[in-house]
Amino acid sequence: MTAATRIIINEIKGYHNFLKFMIFLVVLSALATMVRFIFGLGVTTNLNDVYPWGLWISFDVVTAVPLAAGAFTLGAIVHCFHIKKLEPLVRPAIVTGFLGYSLVCVGLLLDLGQPQRAWHTMVYWNVHSPMFEVSMCIMAYTTVLFMEFLSPVCEKFGYHLPLRVLRWLEMPLVIGAAAISTLHQSSLGTFFLIAVDKLHALWYNPLLPLLFWMSAIFTGISIIILEATMVHRYLDQPDESELLEILAKILPWTLGAYLIVKLAATALLSHGPLYDRPSLLALFLAEIIIGVIIPMFMFMQKSYREDNRMQLRGASLVIAGVVLNRFNVSMFGMEQADQAIYYPSIIESLVTIGIIAAHVLFFVLLAKYFPIFEHHPETVDYTMPDRAFKTTAELGHTQAAASEAGH
Amino acid sequence: MSSTPIDFDKTKSFLIDTTKCTGCRGCQVACKQWNQLKAEKTVFFSGEGYQNPPLMSEYTFTRVKFKDYQKNGQNEFAFYKEMCMHCNEPACASVCPVGAFKKTPEGPVVYDADRCIGCRFCMIACPFGVPKYEWSKAFPLVRKCTGCYSRIKEGLQPACATACPTAITYGSRADMIKEAEKRLKNRPDRYYHAIYGKEEAGGTSVLYLTHQPLDELGFKPVTKRPLPSYTWQALRLVPGIFLTVGGGLSLLSWFTHRTERIRREEAFKNSKVQPETTEEENREDQP
Q1: 3-state class of B169 per DSSP?
Q2: What is the radius of gyration, based on Cα positions, of chain B?
Q3: Do residues A125 and A132 lie in contact, with contact meaning Cβ atoms separated by under 8 Å?
Q4: Final residue of a domain: which of B227, B251, B267?
Q5: Hey, are the CB atoms on A118 and B117 less than 8 Å from each other?
Q6: In a 3-state reduction of DSSP, which class is residue A22?
Q7: Domain residues of chain A, as ranges?
Q8: Does residue B172 lie in a domain region?
Q9: Which of A44, B28, B172, B262 could form a Cys-Cys staple with A347, CB 3.0–4.6 A?
Q10: Is A47's Cβ below 8 Å from some Cβ in B?
């Protein structure tokens, strides 16, 4: 055996071991899920009447949704703002988003007491409920992402007609995705506006929905940087750091705008004492300094923006900051001074770890079997023929074609 | 959320005069009996003070909190009957995605177990910490005080109000507020000068009179504004934001794609080829 073949064999072995480990984690979480449904929420989780929402809501829903925001952010940047150069990044972002949202749905169903009644939200409307709004949006947006995800699937199997329809729907889907995402990303913040006397003043202010939306945008961009870098490193895809540099240019602006709104809202619009709980103050400062201020200054430097590794570090800081922010709002900030501290049980942790593992696993498998990284120019023109939209007068090309299109 | 506006003055309300409460816990027993709630295995002194059970739960919709304090060198007790406040504008009803909670015109906030999906948002939203969850079950629902809606509809008083020998007065909200104010006026030294529930959370159908300051007895300081208004001020913008973002991005895309579109049209007009010919011929052949 030559050295070269040994290296290749080791690589394949490593890849297989990685897949096996991920499958193991997913299976483990599936078992944990079964335990939860057999023995009930009370026995298997550390939730109680004081802490009705724990890790599954804080991470699987409130944090996972902004982490899956890359698809709508990039879609709007590429298609609406028409920065076509970034197109190669779109498809992986859509796959990440689709997986993310599907797993949000899974997480939400596990957390419900009566998951078999989830369809009730579609029948018994309550427009006053942020939860209603978010669940409708998540269902709608998962459908949109599924349709966007159908493109690589149809390409893989060579279905031409659906591709034509999908290409035609591309812009409406992108715009719909941005509109729907704006609504539910912000409404996740609205969730906590009802916790008037529960959420600490460091996070409770009426602009919470706006802050959630703004942070979803820069999180989406950071996730794309993270994902593209990882894919380049571990899945042997081309280096996209030149494209990521364009995204990195957007980041300081969005981070800066967020910082201004956040500090203004905390200083001017919050009620109640801000400095009465040192541990919460530390969490608040950590979230702002690590997740916003440091990456903002990093991405303001041209040399950092151009450096592949610094891009990754900056993006990771932003992501860490957002995760901390969502936990602060949905968990730490909700804990009252005199109450016992909630920490997730083993079952809860296993399920959440399994959900993350499932995301990575499915992404790797989809990347392997479906054309999500191939950005060669298309050999077939899938655009709808122009005459399909034209009337006789406008066309003026051939009379035969015009009469065809007339009806 | 009900469609017809409710006249809150006419809703049935509890006036609970904690200075008259003897701590007999007849209300707790009556509540368990009427609602057929299971007994809880409890340990004395497992909660804050003498109260037992230590907390409200899926089996306990109301309970009397005991507060021991010293007065003139003597040990004294103060009592506080904890129960659902039946808010005029309930937070639980506004956040429930399936509208399982409803404020009835009679007064009680009732819960429809057949609709509930078990998301526990009501428990997050309730400023009084009233809705409790069936943690013991694999497919849990929410439990809380029903205000004995089934009894009220038949012209009876709630079980706890019926059982209480001293402290609970039951009647229309306007009458109860009038009565409470009369008591405050007649015996200013007996009462802490506040009616808890008159304005809390925008007004509730349970009103309390106390001797001690409210926070000492364990009453939660709660905003005076109806809670649903806090989320509604953001949610009411939803349709507008949807149209603004959707319309704005459509317009933007139209402009950004314009150059490309014009170029393509020009190229098509100027081209001598007729790319669609073959397809048209095929189509004309068809009937």
Answers
A1: strand
A2: 30
A3: yes
A4: B227
A5: yes
A6: helix
A7: 20-372
A8: yes
A9: A44
A10: yes
Contacts of A90 (CB under 8 A, 6+ apart): A74, A75, A78
Host domain of residue B269: 237-285
Output the CA torsion A124→A129→A133→A136 (10° steps): -30
A161 in contact with B, Cβ within 8 Å: no
Tokens representing A296 are 């903002």
Q: Do A49 and B91 touch (CB under 8 A)?
A: no
Tell whether B222 and B256 lie within a shared domain. no
B13 and B145 belong to one structural domain? yes
Answer yes or no: are the C-beta atoms of A108 and A188 closer than 8 Å. Answer: no
Residues B172 and B280 in one domain: no
A118 at B interface, C-beta within 8 A: yes
Q: Is A381 helix (H, G, I), strand (E, B) or coil?
A: coil
CATH number at residue B85: 3.30.70.20
Report yes or no on B168 lying in a domain.
Answer: yes
Domain final residue pick, B177, B197, B227: B227
Rounded to two decimals, the pTM is: 0.89
A405, closest residue in chain B (CA to CA): B280
B47 vs A220: CA distance, rounded Å: 46
If you average pLDDT over each of A372-376, B195-199, B211-215, which comes out highest?
B195-199
Q: What is the dihedral of CA B179, B183, B185, B187, to 10 degrees?
A: 170
pLDDT digits (tens, 9 = 90+) for B199-212: 999 999 999 999 98
- Helix ranges (DSSP H) in A77-129: 87-111, 120-123
CA distance A406 to chain B (A): 13
CA distance A352 to A32: 10
DSSP, residue by residue, A324-356: HHHHHHHTGGGS-TTSPPP---HHHHHHHHHHH
Architecture of domain A20-372: Up-down Bundle (1.20)
d(CA A274, CA A271): 8
What pLDDT digit, counting tens, does each position of A201-228 carry?
A: 999 999 999 999 999 999 999 999 999 9
Query: Which residue in chain A is spatially nearest to B260 when comparing CA positions?
Result: A82
Same domain for B190 and B275, yes or no, is no
